[in-house]
Specification:
single chain, alpha/beta, Rossmann fold, Serine Threonine Protein Phosphatase 5, Tetratricopeptide repeat, DNA Cyclobutane Dipyrimidine Photolyase, subunit A, domain 3, 6-stranded mixed β-sheet, Photolyase/cryptochrome alpha/beta domain-containing protein, flavoprotein
Length: 547
């Protein structure tokens, strides 16, 4: 059956009672949670479990903002479960060790969880399913982290992931709409079952604090995104209040205020599964039909969700999707190895205020606007530093609240012109893009207080300010704030030619002819055409700055 998987053990054949565990990973919610409903259905008892790997908790690859969001989400989930006379069981350890023990201790007959469509999750879940089968525990898996069951998308494309967004949209046009979201779980849903809760539950299974996990919180500022399903549902209704945008169906215009986190941002909640993508999809569809008097919405209305779905499907059968080596969709570009330049970029010390302010915001808030992501990704890779997208992806993976493995890797390949997007003659200018996005420079001043008094005329190019202006602004360039680490006009021309040579070699190499047709690569224009099309040179500020 589509969207459903079940591996049978043997224990249910001899046991009259069903004792179930629902294993939370993502999908940290009670609404639209088909796997949790399966655990509850016809059960004598059920427990909701979240396994916290202590090694993972100590990993430097996960930033403190992400941990705070996760713990807040678990606290919120536990609070919601309390309202239906249940609790969340947070258990520290590795999944295989934990389940080997609690399957026996709790006399478990069924394990349910939400399907993880990514390669690492598939491998982990396969091992747990094998363990469950060995111990006579049935396993029930349901798809709800994506709009569609990704197997349906692959089957419609000859069991291959679609590698262009155009092809992806074509496939979706031939599929039924995504399933409608299931109702939230309430007290009536669990009236015929129970959760065994001991008096020392908080001591044994409570949600830990950041301090208990070893984090220093002294310098941690207030959160811009409070984790949890409760906040997610409040945000979706604020998001949908923008009826004027839906009514006219215009893309929201870029404004300086959009560079700051808003109370309607949803991406972290989708990533952790605090918000069902199907609920978001159908609420937006309902509102569109209401405003447009029954008219069916275009696919583009759900662009944020569909791009997420596209990258999930592209990565679903590719365990090397997050690296160049062994990655069949990635162009093999000979990037430079430059740890010093990478560190300056990651720490917001490039000397370009627009780039540095974005990177400081990323580290401080755990979020940056999607166009800001484009700007810093282009700067690191094909635009200026010629450093591999793999390195930038790792930084985003550590710091971004909303980062998904598939979406993160796919977006970095796209923005570096390594896959999915090949118009490398379009490039972001680290000066002009900032001027257009925030003409007053307030965003830069907020995240780079060292430039607080720099006049607007020089805020994006402070190195051009006369010495007297720098002194008056209490910021001497080269001392208080770094000089630009590269000459953008020069290196961007050089890098564009390097990229042209890479793609030219692809198009003339017969061994990759099939690959280039699959990715729908463009014709490679002559170099003088690049300069006509690319607006980042000089002081131009055309739409090309936004790709």
């Amino acid at each position: 059956m589509k969207g459903k998987s079940q591996l049978k053990g043997t224990g249910n054949k001899v046991m009259a009672k069903k004792n179930a565990i629902h294993w939370f990973r993502k999908g940290l919610r009670l609404h639209d949670n088909p796997a949790l409903l399966e655990a509850i259905k016809d059960s004598s008892s059920y427990r909701c479990v979240y396994i916290l790997d202590p090694w993972f908790a100590g990993s430097s690859q996960v930033g403190i903002n992400k941990w705070r969001f996760l713990l807040e989400s678990l606290e919120d989930l536990d609070s919601s479960l309390r309202k239906i006379n249940s609790r969340l069981f947070v258990i520290r350890g590795q999944a295989a060790d934990v389940f080997s023990r609690i399957f026996k201790e709790w006399n478990i007959t069924q394990l349910s969880f939400e399907e993880d469509p990514e390669p690492y999750g598939k491998e982990r879940d396969h091992a747990i399913c094998a363990l469950a089968a060995e111990l006579g525990v049935d396993v029930v898996i349901r798809s709800s982290h994506t709009l569609y069951d990704l197997k349906d998308i692959l089957e419609a494309n000859n069991n291959q992931p679609p590698l262009t967004y155009r092809r992806f949209q074509s496939i979706l046009s031939g599929l039924p709409p995504p399933p409608t979201p299931l109702d939230p779980i309430t007290s009536s849903s669990v009236q015929h079952t129970r959760t065994p809760i001991s008096d020392d539950h908080d001591e044994k299974f409570g949600v830990p604090t950041l301090e208990e996990l070893g984090f220093d919180t002294d310098s941690l500022g207030p959160t811009k995104f409070c984790g949890g399903e409760t906040e997610a549902l409040a945000r979706i209704y604020r998001h949908l209040e923008r009826k004027a945008w839906v009514a006219s169906f215009e893309r929201p215009k870029m404004s300086p205020q959009a560079l700051f986190p808003s109370q309607t941002g949803l991406s972290p909640y989708l990533r952790f599964g605090c918000l069902s993508p199907r609920l978001f999809h159908w609420k937006l569809t309902e509102l569109y039909k209401k405003v447009k008097k029954g008219q069916e919405p275009p696919l583009a209305l759900h662009g944020q969700l569909l791009w997420r779905e596209f990258f999930y499907s592209a990565a679903s059968n590719n365990p090397s999707f997050d690296k160049m080596s062994g990655n069949s969709v990635c162009v093999q570009i000979p990037w430079d190895h430059n740890p010093e330049a990478l560190a300056k970029w990651a720490e917001g010390q490039t000397g370009f205020p627009w780039i540095d302010a974005i990177m400081v915001q990323l580290k401080k808030d755990g979020w940056i606007h999607h166009l800001a992501r484009h700007a810093v990704a282009c700067f690191l890779t094909r635009g200026d530093l010629w450093i591999s997208w793999e390195e930038g992806m790792k930084v985003f993976d550590e710091l971004l609240l909303d980062v998904d493995w598939s979406v993160n890797a796919g977006t970095w390949m796209w923005l570096s012109c390594s896959a999915f997007f090949q118009q490398f003659f379009h490039c972001y200018c680290p000066v002009n893009f900032g001027k257009r996005a925030d003409p007053t420079g307030d965003f830069v001043r907020h995240y780079l207080p060292v430039l607080k008094y720099m006049p607007t005329q020089y805020i994006y190019e402070p190195w051009t300010a006369p010495e007297s202006v720098q002194k008056a602004a209490k910021c001497i360039i080269g001392k208080d704030y770094p000089m630009p680490m590269v000459d953008h006009s020069n290196v961007s021309r050089i890098n564009m030619e390097r990229m042209r040579q890479v793609y030219k070699s692809l198009l003339v190499n017969s061994s990759v002819a099939g690959f280039t047709r699959k990715l729908d690569l463009p014709k490679i224009p002559k170099m003088d055409m690049f300069y006509l099309k690319a607006s980042m040179f000089g002081n131009t500020s055309s739409d090309e700055d936004h790709e």
